[in-house]
Amino acid sequence: MTYATEYQRSIDNFEGYWQELAEAIHWFEAPQVGLSKDENDLYRWFKGGKLNTCYLALDHHVMNGRADQLALIYDSPVTGKKETYTYRALLEEVARFAGVLKAQGIEKGDRVIIYMPMIPQVTFAMLACARLGAVHSVVFGGFAAHELAIRIDDAKPKLILAASGGKEISRIVPYKPIIDAALEKSKHQPQACIMYQREFVKAEMQDGRDLDWMELLATAEPASYVTVDATDPLYILYTSGTTGRPKGVLRDNGGHAVAMYSSLKNVYGIKPGETYWAASDVGWVVGHSYIVYAPLIYGCTTILFEGKPIKTPDAGTFWRVIEEYQVKVFFTAPTAFRAIKKEDSKGELRAKYDTSCLRYLFLAGERTDVATLEWCEQMLGVPVIDHWWQTESGYPMLANMAGLELQPIKPGSAGPPACGFDVQILDPDGNVLAANEEGTVAIRYPLPPGCLPNLWEDTARFKESYLEPYPGFYFTGDGGYRDEDGYIFITGRIDDIINVAGHRLSTAAMEEVLASHPAIAECAVVGVADDFKGQIPVGFFVLKAGINTTEEEVEKEVIQMVRSTIGAVAAFKRAVQVERLPKTRSGKILRKIMRYIADARSFNPPSTIEDMQVLPELEELMRQKRIGNLALTK
Ligand code: COA
Ligand code: AMP
């Protein structure tokens, strides 16, 4: 079966194609329909189908010959621990933890927030929720109290599941003070917090609210799986939007299971029984899809790696894991390899390990620059495949589908569209553009199974953000073009979302923090090009008149404010004072122009600009302050 014929078939017979793929998973009751519309006039997949995602990931394999195969490998260079779980052992852990949740009254449809680092218990927690039909919402450990509080108020969880802390390269991050601070801010209060105590950091427990994970587990009875509908929610994952309020991306059970199974097989080209490794974090969509759900649903062995590409203990750690666990397919963000390359550009550490087991390296989260792609090819000697997706899609929309038929690799491109995704490049009026014309990347609606059917309790925002900009299409927020061979090149976000070290962040959220500084009259935060992290946020602020403070003081204070409000992961380390910001005559700040100046990209100033003179002033200031690519110019 070739990619070209399969792709055409998936577009010509869109619904039938996905219905056929749905036959590969074990339904308790197979769906009789593919697409249908719900009460919000939105498309849903496989209505009427009955299943359980945890059953698919565990029980099904235990009953079908995989009980003694490794399901999960936990490798933690930050704590020196390694653990392995067979499918049987993982099922036991999950069923027992589901018993803990059940004893707390958790039922189908209840929300549970999970705020945990990369330890096996996070996997138990996610799968235990799925087992009971509860809806989990994992919050990345790098987010601070304010971000956690927003998510608590939106998801309204019955429980919070957390660990006492995480370990970063050079510091311990205690989670409990963050949870306590978040619960002080949030209106919604969960009935309890279940805390998993780690030996290197102890959580102070609050009587009447906090419960000890291990104590509850000691008396828990294993709980069985419940039957859910294909359209019932599996999880909510909050992701940065263009305002300070994150979007609660909703994932259903049925479409998701089909998408996970088929993408692992057809995109990543791995076989059941083999080891698949995604070095990411469960707090991001990559972690949900390709650390937890897809490898387990497909019967692979997955790796939960609690470490970084460098300094844990060195830049050879990825190669070591590949060799030690005979990883067949590896997936991470390009920034991780830029970090390794910076420390070991000649590959001396690389030479110490035998990675001949590896078949493919997949990269996503940000565009893979050609230099990084070539370096990885040179280091590994396997196809290095850039592919493109988003939290919203949950799995690749553009990809060289290695499992189907590997196409030639074009450096700089995220590949041709994945089967089932009708990807088009549109002009501002919604017309489909011809080859090599740059525009907005859009996907014809309805989207394939597994992609977000809606936002959590916010249909209006879903329609407004994704469906209304280009009727008949899903708006991705990315710009790009298609070449004459059908390969698509993503040129970056066309909104104010940025990607810092593969982490999606909202500049609007950072602006809200800066704007709350008493000395700041107005401000803008833009993502500027960075050799290492891809992009980094830089703040520009105008001081209020008559304020007796220095630029340096304000910079120091806003850096600290962003860190304690949004989190260290924002990597907000620069803020500069400007006399004024570039604006349109109607007062809109021209952030995109500011980004183009910093990146030393050419642009046409809009005719609506208030004062053209502000642009050379800003450019000179950025050059002096060594911001973005202007740091490289004289
Ligand atoms: N909990 C708490 N803090 C966290 C955190 C977490 N889970 N993850 C990151 N942070 C902190 C870091 O410690 C750092 O703090 P610092 O300012 O005190 O140094 C800050 O957030 C910024 O982190 P990061 O941007 O990751 O920078 P880094 O210099 O620590 O590491 C890389 C750089 C490239 C090694 C790292 O970003 C990486 O491994 N990236 C891969 C990204 C990835 O997996 N993306 C998922 C999509 S595939
Ligand atoms: P997230 O929702 O965190 O997965 O971030 C999604 C965004 O990351 C996309 O909208 C893109 O802007 C960017 N992105 C992800 N993968 C790629 C890629 N392979 N090439 C270019 N941009 C990417």
Produce a short descriptive summary:
By secondary structure, the protein is α/β, with parallel strands linked by helices. It has 18 helices and 29 strands.
Describe this structure in words.
Helix 3 (53-63) packs across helix 4, helix 6 (145-155) crosses helix 7 (176-185) and helix 9 (254-266) crosses helix 10 (285-297). The protein has a seven-stranded mixed sheet, sandwiched between helices. It has a five-stranded parallel sheet with strand order 7-6-8-11-12, with helices on both faces. The protein has a four-stranded antiparallel sheet with strand order 21-22-23-24. It has three domains: 1-65 and 230-307 and 387-500, 3-Layer(aba) Sandwich (Rossmann fold), CATH 3.40.50.12780; 86-226, Rossmann fold (3-Layer(aba) Sandwich), CATH 3.40.50; 501-632, GMP Synthetase, Chain A, domain 3. The model has no long low-confidence stretch (mean pLDDT 97). The protein starts with a helix and ends in a 10-residue tail after the last helix. It is built from 18 helices and 29 strands. The longest helix is centred in the N-terminal third of the chain and has 17 residues, at 87-103. It has 634 residues and is α/β, with parallel strands linked by helices. The radius of gyration is 24 Å and the shape is globular. Bound molecules: coenzyme A and adenosine monophosphate. Adenosine monophosphate is lined by residues 239, 285, 364-367, 386-388, 390-391, 414, 476-478, 490, 493, 499, 504.
